[in-house]
Write a structure and sequence with these properties.
The chain is α+β, with helices and mostly antiparallel strands. It is 44% helix and 20% strand. The protein has 12 helices and 12 strands. Helix 4 packs parallel to helix 7.
C-alpha cells in the first residue's frame, strides 16, 4: 500500500545517494548511520519545513533501511509511519505500523529498521522550547525536560485528536492561497506549535503527567494573555487585530473589550505603545550614536516617520532627535 508524499512544496532531497542523504538528515536525526539493503535501489525523498521551533518532515527511501541513532539530538522525535513498518530497538522493542507512533527523547540511542514501503512523518520538537513550555504550563521554572513513554496509539481519545491536529498542520503547511502566499501567519503558526506541544504533553504519558493531567492550574490563562504575550515578544511583527484575535481564539470584538478593560487602549494602541518603548530604549542605549532615528523606528514597525515623531513627542515630550542628542551629551560629559 502506498500513500501520496506529504509536504511536496518543501522538497529538500530526491536522490539515490545514501551518503549524501546523511548530511541532510543529520540536523533532524542527529549523529546517525544509515544503510540500505544491498539488494534494493533506494529512491530517497526528504521533505521538510520549519514552523517556529517545530520541524515537520516526510521521509521515504523505497528500500529496506537501517538507522542507528546515537542519541545526541537537539530535540524530541515523534515517528509516525504512514505506510509500511518501523522496527525500533532501544529501551524497548516495538514494531510501528500506521495508526501508531513513537516518541524518542533527545538522549535515546535507537536502532530503527524501516521496510522498503515505509513512508513516515517525523516531528522534531526542540528540547529547550518544549521544556520551557512545560515550565510555563506548570508555572515552575525548575521543571526538567519530560521523559515520555515511547509507544503511541492513535486509535482513540486524546492521541487520535493529537494525530488529527498534526495532519491538519502538515496539510496547511503545504498549502498556499490564490496569490501563492503561505496560509499561516507566523503568529498563528506559533500558537499552533504550542498547541501541538501541549497536546503531546497531556496525551502521551510522561514524567510530568501527574501534574499536567491530574492537577491542572486552577486559573486558566485568559485569551487576552496570548495576544499580550505576542505583542510584547514580537512588537516589530506586522500584527493586525484580526491576527491577534485568531491566535487568541476569540473574536475581534472580545479582544478589543479585553484590552480596553485591562489597558484602556485598543489592541493596536497597546502595540504602538510597546513599540515606542522599544524605540526609546534603543535611542538611549550606549550605541545609539551609530544609528539613525529612521532606521530604529522602521525596525520597530513604524513605517510613517511623521506620525511616529508625533506619537513619540506626545509620549515623551521631546522629539526623537532631541532624545539622541540629550543622551549623547550625557555620555560625553561623563566620559
Amino acid at each position: 500500500m502506498s500513500a501520496a508524499p506529504l509536504l511536496t512544496k518543501h522538497a529538500v532531497l530526491h536522490t539515490d545517494d545514501v551518503a549524501a542523504s546523511r548530511e541532510w538528515l543529520t540536523p533532524l536525526l542527529g549523529r546517525h548511520e544509515l544503510s540500505v539493503a544491498a539488494t534494493t535501489h533506494p529512491k530517497i525523498r526528504f521533505h521538510s519545513c520549519q514552523l517556529g521551533s517545530l520541524r515537520l518532515s516526510y521521509l521515504s527511501l523505497n528500500a529496506t533501511a537501517q538507522f542507528e541513532l546515537a542519541g545526541a539530538r537537539s530535540g524530541y522525535l515523534v515517528l509516525v509511519p504512514l505506510t509500511g513498518s518501523i522496527w525500533l530497538r532501544g529501551a524497548q522493542r516495538m514494531r510501528l505500523v500506521p495508526g501508531m507512533g513513537a516518541v524518542l527523547g533527545p538522549g535515546d540511542p535507537v536502532s530503527a529498521r524501516c521496510s522498503a514501503d515505509c513512508q513516515q512523518l517525523i516531528v522534531h520538537m526542540n528540547q529547550a522550547v518544549l521544556t520551557a513550555h512545560v515550565q510555563s504550563l506548570l508555572n515552575c521554572s525548575s521543571a526538567e525536560s519530560p521523559a515520555f513513554e515511547p509507544l503511541m496509539r492513535f486509535d482513540a481519545g486524546g492521541a487520535l485528536s493529537w494525530y488529527e491536529s498534526l495532519m491538519f498542520l502538515v496539510e496547511r503547511a503545504n498549502a498556499t492561497d490564490s496569490m501563492g502566499q503561505e496560509l499561516f501567519h507566523p503568529l498563528v503558526a506559533t500558537e499552533l506549535e504550542r498547541a501541538l506541544m501541549t497536546g503531546l504533553l497531556v496525551t502521551q504519558p510522561n514524567t510530568h503527567s501527574p501534574a499536567l493531567v491530574h492537577d491542572p492550574p486552577a486559573q486558566p490563562v485568559e485569551p487576552i494573555e496570548t495576544a499580550v504575550r505576542l505583542i510584547n515578544e514580537y512588537p516589530e511583527a506586522g500584527h493586525t487585530v484580526a491576527d491577534l484575535a485568531q491566535a487568541a481564539g476569540v473574536s475581534v470584538r472580545t479582544l478589543e473589550k479585553g484590552f480596553h478593560r485591562r489597558f484602556g487602549l485598543p489592541p493596536y494602541g497597546y502595540l504602538r505603545q510597546v513599540r515606542l518603548k522599544r524605540v526609546r530604549a534603543e535611542l538611549t542605549a550606549p550605541d545609539a550614536a551609530n544609528k539613525t532615528v529612521s532606521e530604529v523606528a522602521a525596525r520597530w514597525g513604524f513605517s510613517h516617520l511623521g506620525r511616529f515623531a508625533q506619537e513619540y513627542r506626545k509620549k515623551y515630550h521631546e522629539n526623537p532627535s532631541e532624545t539622541v542628542r540629550r543622551y549623547r551629551a550625557i555620555r560625553t560629559s561623563g566620559a
